[in-house]
What does this fold into?
Amino acid sequence: MRLEGLHHITAITGDAPRNVDFYARLLGLRLVKKTVNQDDPTVYHLFYADELGSPGSDITFFEYPGARRGRAGAGMVHRIVWRVASEEALDFWEQRLRSEGIASTRADGRLTFSDFEGLSLELTVVETEDAPLIADHPDVPAEVALQGFDSVRAFTADPGASSAFLAEGMGFRPEGEEAYELRGEERGSLYVYDRTSERGIGGAGTVHHVAWASPLDEHEAWRQRVLEAGASPTPVIDRFYFRSIYFREPSGVLFELATIGPGFTTDEPLDHLGERLSLPPAFEHLRDQVEPVLTPLPDPRARESVG
It folds into this structure.
């Protein structure tokens, strides 16, 4: 069994309209699903990805309106890294960010910046045989678009504490002392540690959890495998768009194993993903209660067509 790299990364925002503007308009991702947090259906769960809503491209956000900013610390992912194709792509993004008044730092084929709530983001030039996972956007040419996730970086006080669990329990391949690659038949991703003993504070601009992609027919077997490796996984939870298992790896980072499929077209046609509030069948009876309390959002595709 092999996991197929990153599936999605979920973070927290206190301002969903600005979040849509930043990730859909500025970064050129597609809002592929507008739904609710299934553990707290009074708040949004927004999904941005490539044009098809593919695993490996999907950054998601829970919105807690007005949430205070958090700070990443030990046991938390602190940076999300996307692939781009070339230094010319970095030129494009450096200029695009500057035009929005967003500072960035460039070095060694990498461009680092933060979103409006302080979440650390990075674009890195990567040569890979993995298929580029690109969204269509009128202001972002395909050759410079974000191509899906490359890696996440997590803080820990002791990288060695997780090495056996990652390598033997989950099939990560060590890349030096503090980096690990998880590669399946189609895709791969990196998981990298940076050392700190500082404790973090959850809140807006922090990562809630990171999900790794499991083939649907291997999901139960993966639950058993991480259980035998010493983790305490939840039962399989049906999230409608995928099935999920949650547990913490030894450094404290919250992991999810999410299945590849059924996918976001389960309840919306591909051409209209993210246009309306989608509620899984178990939550549809709550529509009249939750729609009035959710923050009104712009339609990023409508703004594109007007522009």
Remarks:
- The chain has a mean pLDDT of 95.
- The first strand starts at residue 6 and ends at 13.
- Residues 87-99 form the longest helix (13 residues).
- DSSP finds six helices and 16 strands in the chain.
